[in-house]
Amino acid sequence: AQSVTQPDIHITVSEGASLELRCNYSYGATPYLFWYVQSPGQGLQLLLKYFSGDTLVQGIKGFEAEFKRSQSSFNLRKPSVHWSDAAEYFCAVGASNGGGNKLTFGTGTQLKVEL
Amino acid sequence: GAVVSQHPSWVICKSGTSVKIECRSLDFQATTMFWYRQFPKQSLMLMATSNEGSKATYEQGVEKDKFLINHASLTLSTLTVTSAHPEDSSFYICSARVPPSGYTFGSGTRLTVV
Prior knowledge:
heterodimer, A: 115 residues, mainly beta, B: mainly beta, 0% helix, 55% strand, globular
C-alpha cells in the first residue's frame, strides 16, 4: 500500500525567505507524485507533479520539487516566499501500476508567512 | 481545461435529512471520480471511487448506505449523505481522474448538520 509522510505540521517563514516542505513516500514501484495547495475552505490546486523523466520538476507560482528515489522523497521548494503563499500544502502519491488510480495524501503542512 | 464544478459550496441541513452534492466535469469526460472527506485542519481521506456506469468502490470503514454515490454519466457524479447527523458535518471534495495520469479537484462542499 502507498503512503505519504509530511513531517512538518506547521512551518513559519519570513516573506522573501526560501522554503522547503518535506515529503516522504512509500510505494513499491516508481510513484506518481503531486504537490497541491489549499486555501481555507477551498479545493485543491495542483502545484506540480512528477511521473517520470527529469527528477527536478518546475511548477506554478515559482515552486519546484525534486524526486529523490534513494531517499523516497519529493520535497517542495521555493527560493523566495510571498505572503500570498500562506496556505496548506499537501503531498500526494498515486500508483503508477493502476491500484485504482487513487491518490493518497499526506497530513499536510500549514505554511505561515511573516511579513 | 479539465475543470470539475462542485455544488453546492456550502449547505446546512437538519439532522435526519439527506443532502446531495454534485460534481460535474465541464470540459472532459470523467470516467473515474473520487470522493474525499476532510475534517478541519486534517488531510483528505478517500471515501470512495466511482466509475461511470458501475457501482462505487468504498474505502474500508465508509458506510455505503449512508454515503450514496452515483456516477450515471461521464460528466456527473453525485454524493448523497442520507439521514445526516452532526457527525457527518465535514468538508467534502470530489476529484476526477484526467488521463493519462492527472487529477482535478472540485472546490469542495462544506456540510453542516444541525
